[in-house]
Design a protein that fits this description.
The complex is a heterotrimer of chains A (437), B (153) and C (316). Chain A has one domain. Chain A is 76% helix and 0% strand. Chain A contains 21 helices and no strands. Chain A has helices at residues 2-16, 21-37, 39-54, 61-74, 77-89, 95-108, 114-131, 136-147, 157-166, 170-176, 178-198, 215-236, 242-259, 265-298, 301-312, 316-333, 336-347, 364-383, 390-398, 404-427, 430-433. In chain A, α2 runs parallel beside α14 (265-298), α12 runs antiparallel to α13 and α18 runs antiparallel to α20 (404-427). Chain A is globular and about 70 Å long. The mean pLDDT of chain A is 89. By secondary structure, chain B is mainly α. Chain B has helices at 2-28, 36-57, 66-108, 120-152. Chain B is 82% helix and 0% strand. Chain B has one domain (2-152). By secondary structure, chain C is α/β, with parallel strands linked by helices. In chain C, β6, α6 (151-158) and β7 (162-164) form a beta-alpha-beta unit. Classes of the chains: A mainly alpha (437), B mainly alpha (153), C alpha/beta (316). The interface between B and C is medium-sized, with 13 and 13 residues. The structure holds sodium ion (2 copies). Chain A: This is TRAP transporter large permease protein. Chain A: Its main location: membrane.
């Protein structure tokens, strides 16, 4: 127990000393394991974890879903989503920001990752908002927040990882993410309206037809719809598994992009390289988290926590509130992937010791699905919570001249919307479970 | 490095193809691709390690540079150098342990379930790639320090 | 006092964990008056196939796993427990396996680097299908069957089936989508992996169409740190006693599964004489090949197999 806490403290120090998170977790994990267990076992644990994680069949979804998103982005389909969203609802005050949120939601339906969604949409939506004098904070905030939907609206790399960690049905997790995802879009749109209502100068009225909706844009929207349909019908119609869906999605997106002549050779090569880069980055984090959680597991943290809750006899909902608070605090400093990988193995066994009375959560199989959605929404919040908000960093990377503080300030209304959403989703499990049941 | 980029490209394409051929094969031709499961595993492993040196060279790992921003350019350079040297050490240990793993897989004669492909070569490649990544991290640390020197002048 | 860490990779509520591993861990503490305790982890310290080596290298003190996790010849003599017609109860088969493998086939030599605490098998394996009964070998031809590999894969291929491998949780995805037509599983696995909605019939063969063998092992260094009297106390509740405990856990899980299977209306039928004799013919070939191979190391495989069947109560 003490060892785990010391481990977490050292980990934070290393992270703030700009050691890449992946290698900080690996180092602390091995050192902690070695201290408690001996160096030979610690090093063999390390070697095996590195190798096995890289060769884990289920994790093949990571490069393939990312590749799919990159191909679509490089083919300019995201542009079409933004133009169509503007045509749909953009005349309202703050219309471009609303369109940014909506198109983020749309792109999330074909992107497995939040960072990729934010990166793609920032390139698409930011120029228009700047052209019409939108406040940088509102503009970047809408995209950073909208981008977080990438891991909630299926397909989702994070939901797949959660499914693997908890041995639960990935197909059901995907379905469960749909309504909370739509709720997220609705609340973000509301956040834009409220912000603009309070301070209209943030979003000057766009005059004329600020964004033309071309034939190519419509084709782009159709391509996204077709691809989402292929994935969903394929999974739920029984043609392929959620894991295979990634490979099929990648293949179909390539075929569509080439058939429509939307992908240049340079664009394709860039999509490959971006995918390779993201893959190595994500796997390094997964390996580090795995090594670190082996240490925490060996040190007995998960068991100590379960025993503690059983001993104190707290009610299930009290425990859930505590877990939410822990997630919000961890979300300040931890990166999303490591947050899931480090916390889920510790928390999800608690579901089996918690008594939810005669609610739908009495069925542990449903409780695991619901908890997965709660955890993913908590992770979404962490992506825009300072000081370490990965989506905010992505925006900062694309728009180097915008100060980090401006983006975090702009994200605030969306963060409030997220808090409302996570409370709704936690205390009304039916929001997540309605489609599953 | 260019060879690794090309290899990554081929592997991503091959991963896509394996699933597509498997699914299409079994629906339209009643002939799933034998060993699709383990081919995916081996190629995924190869992809992760082929891409690792590229990501490391490009500074693509997730890091948090809040303290660095507070410390100014010179302090930031020192932190960058520290972070990269640390990463290089960890990567070197990865390389060493993957080498041990490769030796063991080779001695045991470990093969995949259906196609009976040997596992050891992938582990050797992984060890080599981690060594290359360690070198890339050292190079980044060096670049950060020489940048700092210039700031001092 | 010594605390031993047991890395457990099955789900924490799996019958084997609840009714064998944890009770045994508790017993260790009792028989050593608390001088030795066993902490069972809810999350493993590595992938399932790594668990034998993890004990040998001391990543964990105690691990369990399947011999068939390794594709090499390390546990060649353990394969006696994978054949057809070995036992209708996991308890009897497990005890027979412990006796024959340790007494006649020098199990300790094949478990080099660890202290062998236990050996066991699960209940009889069946052939579950998403269609009607298979009465003749001809009906088996061309069916796509998921197997764990090894003997049962060879056997079914000989009988004309296409065999495939995928991880156990993937079986649900593939069977529900008709990617595979059937699966070689126990009663327990049929329900554990939620296949009752998709399986229509299950073929039962006297003594099981296949089985799998499992080990429970301890790091040698950790074992040697325990006093001789505590070692003796632990050995008394391990070995044959643990084979009985683990076997009973599997049998109880099979019994619970059988109720769900009959409630789901799945047709569990005895294989036709024609089918049994076809299996016997094919099986003999593999039994003989295995016996010839262990003979090179000086073991009488044929006699061992005969003794095992006698002990488990299915002897001819
Ligand atoms: Na998504
Ligand atoms: Na954060």
């Amino acid at each position: 127990m003490t060892e785990s806490l010391v481990g977490f403290a050292v980990l934070l120090v290393l992270i703030f000393a700009r050691v890449p998170i992946a290698f900080a977790m690996s180092a602390v994990g091995v050192a902690g394991f070695g201290y408690m267990r001996g160096w030979d076992p610690a090093f063999s644990m390390l070697g095996r974890t590195v190798f096995e994680t890289a060769l884990n069949y289920s994790l093949s979804v990571i490069p393939l879903f990312i590749f799919m998103g990159n191909v679509l982005a490089r083919s300019g389909f995201a542009q079409g989503l933004f133009a169509a969203a503007y045509r749909l609802i953009g005349r309202l005050p703050g219309g471009l920001a609303v369109a940014a949120v909506l198109s983020c939601g749309g792109f999330s339906a074909v992107s497995g990752s939040s960072l990729a969604t934010a990166a793609t949409m920032s390139k698409v939506a930011m120029p228009s908002m700047r052209r019409f004098g939108y406040d940088d904070g509102l503009a970047t905030g809408a995209i950073a927040a909208g981008g977080t939907l990438g891991i909630l609206i299926p397909p989702s790399v994070i939901l797949i990882l959660y499914g693997i960690l908890t041995e639960s049905d990935i197909g059901k997790l995907f379905i469960a993410g749909m309504i909370p995802g739509l709720l997220g879009i609705a609340l973000y749109v509301a956040a834009v309206f409220v912000t603009v209502l309070i301070k209209p100068s943030l979003a000057p009225k766009a005059t004329g037809a600020p964004i033309a909706l071309t034939g190519a844009d419509i084709v782009g929207v159709l391509a996204v719809v077709v691809l989402f349909a292929v994935i969903m019908v394929g999974i739920y119609g029984g043609f392929f598994t959620p894991i295979e869906a990634a490979g099929i999605g990648a293949g179909v997106s390539l075929v569509i992009s080439f058939a429509l002549r939307r992908l240049t050779r340079e664009g394709l090569y860039a999509a490959f390289l971006e995918t390779a880069g993201a893959t190595a980055m994500i796997f390094a984090v997964i390996i580090g988290a795995e090594v670190f959680s082996n240490f925490v597991n060996f040190a007995g943290l998960p068991d100590a926590l379960s025993d503690y809750i059983l001993d104190t006899g707290y009610s299930a909902w009290t425990v859930m509130v505590v877990i939410l608070v822990i997630y919000l605090l961890l979300g300040c400093v931890l990166e999303s992937l490591s947050m899931i990988l480090l916390t889920v193995p510790v928390f999800y066994p608690l579901l089996y010791t918690m008594d939810f009375g005669d609610s739908v959560l009495a069925d542990p199989n449903l409780a695991v699905i619901w908890f997965g959605i709660v955890v993913v929404v908590a992770t979404e919040i962490s992506l825009i919570t300072p000081p370490v908000g990965m989506n905010v960093f992505v925006l900062k990377g694309v728009l180097k001249e915008v100060p980090l503080t401006t983006i975090f300030r702009g994200v605030l209304p969306f963060w409030v919307a997220d808090i409302v959403r996570i409370l709704l989703i936690t205390f009304l499990p039916v929001i997540s479970l309605w489609l599953v049941m | 490095m260019r060879a690794l980029a090309a290899l990554s490209t081929v592997l991503i394409l091959a991963l896509t193809l394996v699933t597509c051929v498997d699914v299409v094969g079994r629906y339209w031709f009643n002939a799933p691709l034998p060993g699709a499961f383990e081919l995916t595993e081996l190629m995924l492993g190869a992809l992760v390690f082929a891409a690792l040196p590229l990501t490391t060279r490009d500074g693509g790992h997730v890091e948090v540079d809040l303290v660095g921003m507070l410390m100014g350019a010179r302090g930031g350079a020192v932190l960058t150098a520290f972070g990269n040297v640390f990463a290089a050490l960890v990567l070197a240990v990865f390389a060493w342990r993957l080498g041990v793993e490769a030796l063991r897989l080779g001695e045991d004669g470990s093969v995949t379930n259906a196609l009976r492909l040997p596992m050891a070569p992938v582990a050797w490649f992984a060890a080599f790639a981690c060594l290359l990544s360690a070198a890339a991290a050292v190079a980044r640390a060096g670049a950060a320090m020489s940048h700092k020197e210039r700031l001092n002048d | 006092d010594t605390e031993l860490v047991l890395s457990s990779w099955l789900p924490p509520r799996h019958p084997l964990v609840i009714n064998a591993i944890r009770p045994w861990a508790k017993e260790v503490e009792e028989v050593t008056q608390g001088r030795v305790s066993v902490r069972v982890l809810t999350k493993p310290l590595g992938a399932p196939p790594a668990h034998f080596d993890m004990a040998a290298e001391g990543v964990a003190d105690i691990t369990y796993g399947l011999h068939s996790f390794t594709t090499d010849d390390r546990f060649e003599r353990s394969r006696i427990g994978q054949f057809s017609f070995l036992g209708d109860s996991a308890e009897a088969a497990s005890k027979a396996f412990w006796q024959v493998y340790t007494e006649d086939l020098d199990a300790a030599a094949e478990h080099k680097g660890v202290h062998l605490l236990g050996l066991f098998m699960h209940g009889p394996g069946l052939l579950h299908r998403n269609g009607p009964e298979i009465t003749t070998p001809a009906e088996l031809a061309g069916l796509k069957i998921r197997t764990p590999g090894g003997y049962i894969a060879d056997l079914l291929r000989d009988l004309g089936a296409n065999t495939l491998f995928m991880s156990s949780p993937e079986v649900y995805e593939k069977l529900s989508r008709g990617v595979i037509d059937g699966v070689a599983f126990t009663y327990e696995a049929l329900t554990a992996f939620n296949l009752t909605d998709y399986v229509k019939s299950s073929m039962r063969v006297p003594g099981g169409i296949y089985n799998t063998t499992w080990f429970l092992v301890m790091n040698e260094g950790a074992w040697e740190k325990i006093s001789p009297e505590d070692q003796a106390a632990i050995d008394r509740i391990s070995g044959l006693a643990f084979a009985g405990l683990a076997g009973k856990a599997w049998d109880a899980a099979d019994d619970a599964a059988k109720e769900k299977i009959s409630a789901a209306g799945i047709d569990v039928y005895q294989a036709s004489p024609e089918m049994v004799s076809a299996i016997k013919t094919a099986a003999t070939k593999y039994e003989d090949a295995w016996a010839a191979s262990v003979k090179e190391d000086g073991f009488d495989g044929t006699a061992a197999l005969k003794r095992m069947r006698e002990l488990s109560g299915v002897g001819e």
